[in-house]
Write a structure and sequence with these properties.
Number of domains: 4
CATH topology of the largest domain: Lipocalin
Number of strands: 33
Length: about 425
């Protein structure tokens, strides 16, 4: 009997301990644990009635503070910043903008802006109210900026890792046979931003540093180069002639066998879509070069709606597959040997060995294995004897050297 009573007492004690342990984790603490997954940087572009878009950046810090930045693209003095503390309760993130609450629905690697009724937008623009969590930016590569008013004048930025530092090199296309800009220095990475001391002789004599910052662009397709203080912007002009400056927006634009700009053949479609605001993505289902080819195409555009390139997975609609096909839409993207969408047959023939040439319904397709690429030229640009019936092959002598290509495509993970 005593043993039986002892067992009952032990069981009651264990039950009480179990209840106590359950009560040790209040609901508020569970919300805090969930919030830990949400810390980071989120970006997106809201629709705008009188501008090209509202670029939004929201930083959530570990200490429950936030920084909310909005930039009305194309407008002067239209950048606004709010800071404070954020809260998360029942998957709803709340911040304050100019004393008014803003609410977001938290999801996996994204935040969705809620309306005054605490509900998400369900219309055709609903995707534009999403902010995407940002991943670590890879700075290594070659970037260029284009100034249309100067006529094909480009400034080039090369970023080369050197241990924990980066070698930063600026150069420019010649103006009157002289290079207009030239600077090289060492960059340090701090909080995902590169900073470089660009102090001139006068500043060095005063033992003063002038910092130039290089940060990922809003869409992660390139970088923005700037100084923190407005008065220091002139320091970026001392390395250029004719009123030029190192400051500006630079797009990563190199094409190689396994990469284009910021992306490689190891990226999935979903990974690319995660880095770019929805306002710059357009999905289409289209036919390819051959009759049986059908692709889910994801068109990637610049902030000013210029089509840059189009990505496709191997299987229609499978965004978790690696990139299979890249259609290069903009001549701004080019290989190390200068081949772009504006190149001619002669340019390609001079730069790379052509692996094979085969006809499609309206084009001939040149395959270049060295860069995993194909180039199409319209049959209408060829001589009448373009097809050799005896050898059942394209007569290369019938291809005019000045024939421009219609399509420039990279083939990955085929």
């Amino acid at each position: 009997m005593r043993n039986f009573l002892y067992i009952i007492i032990v069981l009651l004690a264990l039950t009480a301990c179990s209840k106590a342990k359950k009560q040790e984790t209040p609901k508020g603490q569970q919300s805090a644990e969930y919030a830990l997954d949400d810390q980071g940087v989120y970006k997106g572009t809201y629709p705008c009635a009188d501008c090209s878009g509202i670029e939004v950046s929201l930083i959530l810090n570990e200490d429950k503070t936030f920084r909310y930045e909005t930039v009305y693209a194309g407008k002067a003095d239209a950048a606004f910043t709010s800071e404070g503390n954020y809260t998360i309760k029942d998957h709803i993130l709340t911040i304050q903008e100019e004393g008014k609450p803003l609410h977001f629905l938290t999801g996996k690697n994204e935040l969705t802006l809620l309306g005054s009724d605490m509900k998400p937008n369900t219309g055709s623009l609903k995707a534009l109210y999403q902010l995407k969590k940002q991943q670590k930016f890879s700075y290594q590569g070659v970037y260029e900026t284009y100034h249309e008013e100067k006529g094909n004048y480009t400034e080039t930025l090369s970023i080369i890792p050197k241990g924990e530092q980066y070698e930063i090199i600026f150069s420019s296309s010649p103006v009157k046979d002289q290079e207009n800009c030239r600077f090289s220095g060492i960059g340090m990475l701090k909080k995902d931003t590169l900073w470089v001391n660009i102090a001139g002789k006068k500043d060095l004599a005063k033992n003063e540093a002038v910092l130039m910052y290089i940060a990922p662009s809003h869409d992660n397709l390139g970088v923005d180069v700037f100084t923190e203080k407005f008065d220091e912007r002139f320091a970026m002009m001392q390395y250029c002639g004719g009123g030029g400056s190192l400051a500006g927006k630079y797009l990563k634009n190199r094409v190689a066998a396994n990469s284009i700009g910021a992306y490689t053949n190891q990226n999935t479609i979903a990974e690319v879509l995660q880095t770019i605001p929805n306002a710059q993505i357009n999905k289409k289902v289209e036919h390819g070069e051959f009759a049986d080819d059908v692709y889910s195409n994801y068109e990637i555009s610049s902030p000013d709606s210029q089509l840059l390139f189009t990505l496709s997975p191997k299987d229609t609609g499978k965004v978790n597959q690696k990139i299979n096909r890249v259609l290069i839409n903009s001549p701004f993207f080019k290989t190390e040997k200068g081949i772009s969408k504006n190149s001619t047959y002669a340019d390609i023939k001079k730069a790379y060995p052509i692996t094979k040439i085969e006809p499609t319904e309206g084009h001939i397709v040149l395959t270049v294995n060295e860069i995993h690429a194909s180039f199409s030229i319209a049959k209408s640009k060829l001589s009448k004897d373009w097809w050799n019936a005896k050898t059942k092959s394209v007569n290369t002598n019938s291809i005019p050297l000045n024939a421009k290509i219609d399509d420039f495509i990279l083939w990955w993970n085929d």
